[in-house]
Structure formats: C-alpha cells, structure tokens
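Before relying on records like the one below, remember that each one covers exactly one chain. Contacts with other chains, cofactors or solvent are not represented anywhere in the record.
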Amino acid sequence: MGEFLKNFFDIKFWKFILVGVLNTIVGTGLQFVLYNFTPLQGMSQKGTFIASAVSYFLASIMSYFLNKYFTFKNNEKGWKPVVRFAVNIAVCYAIAYGLAIPLTSYICTSNNITMFGWKVDVFAQNASMVIGSCLFVALNYIGQRFFAFKSTEEAVSEQ
C-alpha cells in the first residue's frame, strides 16, 4: 500500500495540482461570472448546469494541452487521447455535478441554509458549484492519470 501511495502522489500528481490551480482560477471564475452576472441565475438549477458546462468545456481545452504535454508528458498522436480525455471529462462532470447540484440544492433548501445575504436557492446553486468542482477534481485526476493519459510505463507495469 505504501508503494502505491508513493507512486500515486508522485511528481505527476503535483504537476496536476499546479495545472488544476490555474484551471480552477479560469474555469471557476468563468462559471461564477456566467451564473451570477447573466440571466442564468434566474434559471436556478438549469442555469447552474449551463454555467458549469460552458466553463468546464472552455477550461477543459486548456487543461487538455497543459496536462497532456506538461503533467503527463503524453506523446501519443491522433484522436485517441482527445477522445479518452473528452470521455473522462464528460463522465467526471456527469458524476460530480449530477450528485452535487441536486443534493446540495435539496439540503440547503430543505434546511433553509444560506450565507452572504443570498436567497436560499441562489446560495444552494453557488454552493453546489463549489462541491461539484471538488468532486470533479478528484475524479478527473484519477481518470486522466489512469485512462486519458495513461503512460506506457504504467500500462506495462500492470501487465
């Protein structure tokens, strides 16, 4: 187990975190701007999904190039890594936000939880974007490392 943890939290992990910080600043910033400063806020959960989907799509393009070439140093050519990356992003997004948005909304609205002087539903949607983002990051690292940009060495060591 110790060897697994050592390999899991290697330099790739720390590079992924660095790229993730940059990606989070861009993606989350865009997500909150889209939701809070456009008509999307009036659409409640649907607006949250739209704001997060648009921001994740745009930030994912940046993430693809940074993680492919900087983090995982993947030299694979063609459409296969692009497709694997897109599938990974879609699955991680669907799981993370498919859980975070309805559950956070339910918990906040049924318990009247709010902060910052926001209405309960507005707070719930903003909180669900934060929680969804955290879930997404965890799932995305695993998916990118072991599926989208799986290195030849890691593939050989599993056989």
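Residues 154-159 have pLDDT under 50 and may be disordered.
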